[in-house]
Amino acid sequence: MAVIRNFRYDDLDRIAEIVSSSLGEYYPKSLYLEKSHDWEEGFLVGVEGGRVVAMLLGIVQGRFETRILMFAVERSYRKRGIGRELMERFIDLSVMKRVKRISLEVRRSNLEAIRFYEKFGFKNTGVLFMYYSDMEDGLKMAKQL
Length: 145
Hints:
single chain; 34% strand; alpha+beta; seven-stranded mixed beta sheet
């Protein structure tokens, strides 16, 4: 059973590993620290067996929206409910913020993630052409609260 908790500084190296291996993107560690200060409650990690195996980094964007900037679960820990728990917690936090909408971006080819988001009520709201570092298109998705 995973434990969902807020990000801590000593999670930084694991977060960078998970994002790199799961999302195929590299971000400087300073970005995680900077964004962790934007909305501390919105940076969640999933821990199993004392090891960080998943992360969700969200921010408040304006008065009426939260946005998921990064969401990744280590491959060998997928299909165990950790991602679902992270998403449910983030949605609850967004509701408490009284926002009207949650948004995110996802690789157009990541059909598994798209289906996952759709189960939570996210809908495709547009295409982001050549959005990722490898020039793959992204999809914008949003959920109304």
